[in-house]
Amino acid sequence: MRATSRASWLGVPASLLLLALACAPSTGTPTGAAPAKPASAPAAPAPAGAAAQPVAVESAEAQSAAGAARLKADAAAWQRYQDGARREGKVVVSGPGFPGLRQGLVEGFQQAHGLTVEYLGLGGGEVIARVDRESQAGNVTIDVNIGGTSSCWAMADRGHIDDATPLLVDPNLFNPGSWRGGHMKPILPSPNEPKDFLCGLQGEEWVMTDLFVNPQLVPPDSIQSWKDLLKPDYKGKIISFDPRRPGSAQTTVAYLNTLFGEDYVRDLYLGQSVQLTADYRQLAEAVARGSYPIGIALVQANVEPLRAEGLPLQRVFPADGPGALTGGFGTVHKIKNGPNPNAAAVFMNWFASKDAQEMWEREMMETSLRTDVPHQVPDYVIPKPGVSYTIDDYNPDYFFSKRAPAIAKITDLLGR
């Protein structure tokens, strides 16, 4: 257990930092049938204009490349992990509670390595609490966690995550042509970790689903700027996922706070009487059926089944904010002292494989960082060539200096 607390340097209570768990499933995360295959989506308009207060993408990319350079193919270590995993026979994985994902992971890993996956559908906060409790008792039962970077950082700061550097060794993963940017994207350390510590691996990167409209009620071209949402005509007509809850709106609120400042966020959420929900399905249906014709922080796994039914939902890209890049649920981390350490290492390498990433895109609709995966996701989440996405939501410099304080502010603003 590390003595240093993130709250000490951020000036934000630890309880509020847990609110910044970006992609933890909430009670509104779907747990029924797997999402339908995406309907064809309109191409995103090329945005004009730059973010007002950008976090340099070049800096984030340089940091990621430096982290990836520490990863080395090691055929002998890869064989040792596989041999040890066969003796262990299974791996225990926690992650988002999408049943299609559960089935894909269980069947895919079994087919690839002949090993059983025991899958636990848990939210980010639940995983952190469980691992903390089990670690203190000396009886850790989870080997691997899949979720957002913030879960990895929170557990790493408690001493509950193994460095991924010696774990990602499968020589098949080191073809530069297989990865966007020419390399795997490891999760860089939080400010409390050693600079050479890699918290895990990010498999996905996509454009956050910030803003949707019902085009039958709000013409998409009527919103050219985020500031257009402050028009009196839209008061009482906007619904958002609750940014006080772990989930999609925390990415969007932090992004808007970075671009336009705290006053804008206050004028939007309070001044426009934005309706809040912690149910992703309810959020998407409210926009699609016209109860609230403008929606903030919808997620594609709920949008696309409605679009497939012919309901009107369209992503809008305001010119002054084309969206942040995020990894969604798609990062993987090894829990320290899990019962099956070799199988955990094999699972992490398999998660980065072409087959695993194809399954992930199909079930989660999050764009893989692998270049050899045919995209099975809505067009609006795929990063567009020539568009400058100035914020990487999963870069620790941005997350801890901009995002975590923004979530603390919105929580104070809206009340608990």
What does this structure look like?
The chain has helices at 6-10, 14-17, 57-68, 75-88, 99-113, 124-137, 149-157, 248-260, 262-269, 280-288, 300-308, 341-351, 354-364, 396-414; strands at 90-95, 116-121, 144-147, 185-187, 200-202, 206-207, 211-213, 238-241, 275-277, 294-296, 314-315, 325-326, 331-334. The chain starts with 5 loop residues before the first helix and ends with a helix. It is α/β, with parallel strands linked by helices and 416 residues long.
Strand-helix topology:
Layout: H1 6-10, H2 14-17, H3 57-68, H4 75-88, E1 90-95, H5 99-113, E2 116-121, H6 124-137, E3 144-147, H7 149-157, E4 185-187, E5 200-202, E6 206-207, E7 211-213, E8 238-241, H8 248-260, H9 262-269, E9 275-277, H10 280-288, E10 294-296, H11 300-308, E11 314-315, E12 325-326, E13 331-334, H12 341-351, H13 354-364, H14 396-414
Parallel strand pairs: 1-2, 1-3, 8-9, 8-10
Antiparallel strand pairs: 3-13, 4-5, 5-13, 6-12, 7-10, 7-11
Helix pairs in contact: 4-12, 5-13, 6-7, 8-9, 8-14, 9-14, 10-11
Helix coverage percent: 25-40%
- Unreliable runs, pLDDT <50, ≥5 residues? 1-57
Radius of gyration: 20 Å
What is the terminal separation in angstroms?
A: 29 Å
Give the helix tally.
14
Question: What structural class results from the helix and strand content?
Answer: alpha/beta
Strand order of the largest sheet: 2-1-3-13-5-4
Shape label:
globular
Biggest beta sheet attributes: 6 strands, mixed
Q: Give the SSE string.
A: HHHHEHEHEHEEEEEHHEHEHEEEHHH
Strand content: 5-15%
Mean pLDDT: 86
- Give the tally of β-strands: 13
